[in-house]
């Protein structure tokens, strides 16, 4: 929790309280349904919460922004971002029911009224969003194909609507066809070694290939 406060010192009391509760909620639920590895649970704030919040270092979502988290898994990056941006709406989608059960229970346990969860594949979602966020669920061309037509036209934020993707490693080959993509090194935001090769990949809606 100290890690979150180190990089986000201006949190409200309510946000601090919710971030603190995350650990016990995830530890509790992880004993019943394993969604986060043992090692990762012990380093929840570094490997999951802070990693998710790297998106908040790239953009401060305007109130009312609609965001879909695709392949949310255990609720990352959606849950930490929903705490960080209480006036935005988050739709967390995953095709694995047991993972979504944990996410739903965690969101309810925290009293997050700005989160809804749906057990489905993203291709079956018929709504549009200002931003689609995710954490390395597929190669970028596959992900772009999955989410085609799901990004809204109307702009409400400092960044144009699009995809914000958390990814690590060498992305040169995977992203070579996207000329408008922007990469943000997470190591520019955080000093911990864990983030050395990790990035936030931003692809605006009207991209050129």
Notes on the protein architecture:
This protein has about 210 residues and is α/β, with parallel strands linked by helices. The chain is globular. It has helices spanning about 1-5, 15-30, 40, 45-60, 80-85, 95-110, 140-145, 170-175, and strands at about 65-70, 90-95, 115-120, 130-135, 160-170, 180-185, 200-205. Strand 1, helix 5 (about 80-85) and strand 2 (about 90-95) form a beta-alpha-beta unit. A seven-stranded mixed beta sheet has the order 3-2-1-4-5-7-6, with helices on one face. It has a single domain, classed as Rossmann fold (3-Layer(aba) Sandwich).
Properties at a glance:
7-stranded mixed β-sheet, 19% strand, Rossmann fold, 209 residues, 8 helices, alpha/beta
Q: Could you tell me the radius of gyration in angstroms? A: 16 Å
The CATH topology label is Rossmann fold
Instruction: State the shape.
Output: globular
* CATH architecture assignment name: 3-Layer(aba) Sandwich
Which class in CATH terms? Alpha Beta
Look at the structure and give the mean pLDDT: 94
What's the number of extended β-strand segments?
Answer: 7
Structural class: alpha/beta
Tell me the domain tally. 1
What portion of the residues fall into strands of 2 or more residues?
Answer: 15-25%
- Spell out the helices and strands N to C: HHHHEHEHEEHEHEE
**Most strands sheet:** 7 strands, mixed
Residue runs with pLDDT of under 50 for 5 or more positions: none
The name of the CATH superfamily reads: Vaccinia Virus protein VP39
- Separation of termini? 41 Å
